[in-house]
Automatic annotation (TrEMBL):
Record keyword Membrane present: yes
A Pfam family of this chain: DUF7318
Organism: Haloarcula terrestris
TM ranges: 21-46, 66-86
Keywords: Membrane, Transmembrane, Transmembrane helix
Protein name: Uncharacterized protein
Length: 139
């Protein structure tokens, strides 16, 4: 559904989401995996796997830190897949009309001020410096 309006805020294109059942089942399964991984990571932190409690070998400590890092990586990768599926399948694709601005509009008030002012004008140097340093300096 597209509109013919070209004013700011008009919807230019709207495509409804697909809302497939397979994506919903996938999100549920990934959420179950996510809960399991978070539980494993929490148990590992409480049990002290990565802190070296009860271990005397540094090799075991390094392996435990790598394991905990791998679990944390899997948590974030799983979360990214959940968000990717949700965004692709359950959010509409909407394009709105935005106001196009020229490059100088955000930086300057008037178009003739695009080139700026020189600071080496002698008498006006102190005044120009004050305006550059104190933007709210009164005239």
């Amino acid at each position: 559904m597209a509109s013919e309006g070209s004013t700011y805020g008009d919807i230019h294109r709207y495509e409804p989401p697909r809302e497939s059942t397979a994506a919903a089942v996938g999100i549920v399964l990934l959420t179950v995996i996510q809960v399991g991984l978070v539980g494993l990571f929490t148990y590992g932190m409480i049990a002290g796997w990565a802190s070296g409690i009860g271990t005397t070998l540094t090799v075991r400590l390094i392996e435990a830190n790598m394991f905990m890092g791998g679990v944390l990586t899997a948590i974030f990768i799983d979360l990214s897949f959940i968000m990717l599926l949700y965004r692709k399948e359950f959010l509409p694709d909407v394009m709105i009309v935005k106001k196009r601005r020229r490059k100088w509009e955000d930086l300057y008030i008037r178009q003739e001020d695009v080139d700026g002012e020189t600071m080496a004008d002698g008498d006006k140097f102190a005044e120009t410096f004050k305006r550059a340093v104190y933007p709210y300096y009164k005239k």
